[in-house]
Amino acid sequence: MEKYVDGFVIPIKCENIEKYRKMAEKGGEIWMEHGALAYVECIGDDLNKEKVVPFTQIAGTLDQETVIFSWIVYESKEHRDQVMAAVMADPKMNDTLEMGELMPFNEKRMTYGGFKTLVYLLSKEKEVTE
């Protein structure tokens, strides 16, 4: 069954990871509330592999930075558009950061795109959880 996925690659200063995690937890709750099927945020751990282009290079990380890799799953592109509109209109989105706080990363360096799934498999025996 084809799904639709928004994917993100975000270079972030290591000192801002906890602030990002708190923001992402609040944002993820809002996305799920409005119908996203899954919301996943990952922090780089094993990024500089030999014989391939390193994630740090793709993300353009600087000193003292790592990479956030995240994705949100939807039923379809149309469903994504509906969820996104609802999320952006939700007043709780303004509460994901404390008043006056800036995003914990440089939004101009974030990479984002929408993707049709090519293969989408889930375990039939286990519920997908944390």
Précis, in short:
The chain is α+β, with helices and mostly antiparallel strands and 130 residues long. The protein is 27% helix and 25% strand.
Topology:
Blueprint: E1 4-13, H1 17-33, E2 38-43, H2 55-59, E3 65-74, H3 77-89, E4 111-116
Molecular structure report:
This is RNA signal recognition particle 4.5S RNA. It comes from Acetobacterium bakii. The chain has 130 residues and is of the alpha+beta class. It has a single domain (4-96, 107-116), classed as 2-Layer Sandwich (Alpha-Beta Plaits). The protein is 27% helix and 25% strand. It has a 4-stranded antiparallel beta sheet with strand order 2-3-1-4. The longest helix is centred in the N-terminal third of the chain and has 17 residues, at 17-33. The relative contact order is 0.30.
Low-pLDDT runs: none
**Domains (count):** 1
Radius of gyration: 16 Å
Q: Per the principal axes of the C-alpha atoms, what is the gross shape?
A: globular
Question: Helix amount, in percent?
Answer: 25-40%
Class derived from helix and strand content: alpha+beta
The overall average pLDDT, rounded, is 91
Give the C-level CATH assignment.
Answer: Alpha Beta
As a percent range, the share of strand residues is 15-25%
Number of strands: 4
Biggest sheet, open or closed, and with what strands and sense? 4 strands, antiparallel
The H/E string reads: EHEHEHE
- Report how far apart the termini are: 23 Å
Q: Mind telling me which CATH architecture this is?
A: 2-Layer Sandwich
Protein name: RNA signal recognition particle 4.5S RNA
InterPro entries: Dimeric_a/b-barrel, DUF1428
Pfam families: DUF1428 (PF07237)
